[in-house]
Design a protein that fits this description.
The chain is mainly alpha-helical. The protein has helices spanning about 5-10, 20-30, 30-45, 50-60, 60-65, 65-85, 90-100, 110-130, 135-150, 160-175, 180-195, 205-210, 215-220, 230-245.
């Protein structure tokens, strides 16, 4: 398949009505690895908002069962991406998210901020490290996809455009990013998990590489030391080399979804979306 196969397919679709199909192509065929990394980073940065980081720490899930919590989050979100809002698996994924969030007193403002990270952070990642720029149709479709997800999650006052989402995210982080013990604990557990996916000798290096991907306000909110200039440059350079290689590959014929990636291979015998996530009591 020619490298521009999916770009030509996306050009035939309307990002205002076919946004779920466009986003499925973007996530499954064009940028599966990049969007997985970027969505993980999007969720990670929410820990720097104390009301979110402390809540996640109080549940104990991220510290006691880090891999399960990490995998379940990705698999639930991916069920909607892969199958769509109208499919039984997609509806189950949304129901699971609403059940989990409904068990806690999460403000609409925090929910809306988290939604904004799903829109903004992947686009910023792809602008910096993607093998090609996103088309305008992909940008609009991604925004509309998450607007629809937000409506299914009963989030109020959802921004209408990417520009509005970006303004909301930046303003919210300026106002709310701050150190909290719970946020730092959840961050430490997540960084350890990400490093543990690799052989022991390279784990310290992987931690430094991850820290090099954090912008200064995010890193400072967790009180991590600044990585050296060489580490930052090498990390960015390595990602751009990866993009240059991928640019020369043929289009991906079969989609690659989260459940096929080793980081999310927590259920080798299979799983039921309805059983993923947490089931708070009391």
């Amino acid at each position: 398949m020619k490298r521009d196969h999916w770009q030509r397919r996306i050009a035939e679709l309307d990002p205002h009505t076919d946004y779920a199909e466009i986003y499925r192509i973007t996530a499954g065929h064009e940028f599966p690895w990049d969007l997985t990394q970027a969505l993980g980073l999007a969720l990670y940065r929410t820990y720097a908002v104390p009301s979110i980081g402390e809540l996640l720490s109080r549940t104990g899930e991220f510290e006691r069962r880090t891999h399960k919590r990490y995998a379940d989050t990705g698999l639930i979100l991916a069920a909607v991406i892969e199958h769509g809002f109208g499919h039984a698996a997609g509806r189950t994924g949304i129901r699971r998210m609403n059940q989990m969030h409904g068990a806690y007193g999460i403000s609409n403002e925090d929910m809306r901020y988290v939604l904004s990270t799903f829109v903004v952070i992947p686009m910023r990642w792809l602008d910096a490290y993607g093998w090609r720029p996103l088309t305008e149709a992909e940008r609009v479709a991604s925004t509309n996809y998450y607007r629809e997800l937000g409506r299914h999650m009963n989030i109020k006052a959802i921004p209408e455009t990417y520009t509005e989402f970006a303004a909301l995210l930046d303003a919210y982080e300026r106002e709310h990013f701050a150190f909290s013990p719970g946020g730092r604990a959840v961050s430490d557990a997540t960084l350890k998990l990400l490093a543990d996916f690799y052989p022991r000798p390279v784990r310290p290096l992987l931690r430094q590489v991850t820290l090099a991907l954090l912008d200064d306000p995010l890193r400072e909110a967790f009180r991590y030391p600044a990585p050296g200039r060489f580490t930052r440059a090498a990390t960015a350079g390595g990602l751009r080399v990866r993009a240059a290689i991928e640019r020369r590959l043929p289009a991906r014929k079969d989609p690659r979804y989260v459940h096929e990636m080793r980081e999310f291979n927590f259920y080798p015998g299979g799983y039921d979306v309805a059983e993923l996530g947490t089931f708070p009591r009391g």
